[in-house]
Amino acid sequence: MVKGANKQIVTCAHKEEGKVCPISKTPCLGDCIYANILDDISLGIIGLDTLKKEVFFQNKLAVSIFKETIKPKDYGALSSLLLPDLQMPVTLQNLPEPSIIQYGRKFLGYSTYLISETYLWIYISDITEKMRLNSIAEAVNTMNNFGYIFSGIRHELGNPINSIKTSMAVCRKNLQSYSRETISEFIDRVLSDIARVEVLLKDLKNFSMYENPECREVYIASFMDNLLAMVERDFSVNRIRIRTFISPAAERGFFDARALQHVMLNILTNASDALEGVKSPEIAISAFNTGDRIIIGIKDNGKGIPEAQKKHLFQPFSTTKKHGTGLGLVIVKKMMLKMNGTIEIDSRENDGTRVTLNLPAGNKSDA
Q1: pLDDT tens, 22-39?
Q2: Is pLDDT larger for residue 116 or for residue 47?
Q3: Is 227 among the domain residues?
Q4: What is the pTM of this model?
Q5: What b/e sequence results for 13-37 when a residue is b if at least 16 CB atoms lie within 10 Å of its CB, and e otherwise?
Q6: Residues 325/197, Cβ–Cβ less than 8 Å
Q7: What single-letter DSSP state applies at residue 25?
Q8: Contact predicate 157/197, CB 8 Å
């Protein structure tokens, strides 16, 4: 089972006389074949002694996953990150549930297993790509649900059209008896319904835009400058402060600049609405590079999103806005999908919202 004839056998930390191997539960022999096997699998594995508060085992992949911020065998840091609510003594009843955490730019899935009264195993897997692909699959499923979309269109168009038809019929029937003021009220009502139809048609036009986006190398800093020039005046009037941080490593992305501009304007508009009535309103925009991806974050300190509304965020025609159509985020998600990107929204009511856009990075070697 050990790779290579000359591979050195790992000496176990439990070599002391009388120690029991936490894997086989037999007296420790010192030279540990189990450690070699666990070192070669594609799963991060950490063994914790909760009584002595020490790491008795950590394979190479587990060390590599946390190498940027946590030193090998650092029990305090690892337990604080992975088992922050660990209850002692550990039993099967209070054993932590499988969890997912965001560690830097990665998403890690991990499970904890009790192997004795004091020993725990933690199995860790990098699921960043899996979550990105799941997000794309979810977006594809939403976009393919045309029956739901067309039903919503009929509803959104039918209501104002019926209202216009009724108003005009009543107005025509009573044209000679109604006063100018009453007729004026009917006209205002009709114009309001027409405006509602126009908003829907505009959103539907945006929905069909960028079916084949023209993705190319785009300088992130220049893109952000152009975007902020469009919104700064309106945000200044509303006393909304905009902070930006563009990492030098996030030099270029590969996307359709017009499509991403539409995406971010929609997100910024939502953020602005959420900041209404908030003291010291603020929006922070950041951009980072994670190798072959560009991560753009838009964070506000607004009202946040109620828990019941979160599951409907990307459903067509689902909106709490008085004059909204509920297509904004659907269009945004579709545009991101077309550019091989994803969007994630993390929000808590009365604690602000963070939107994360994940897009392909540009080729640094290009002129």
Answers
A1: 555 666 655 565 566 566
A2: 47
A3: yes
A4: 0.47
A5: bbeeeeeeebbeeeebeeebeebbe
A6: no
A7: -
A8: yes
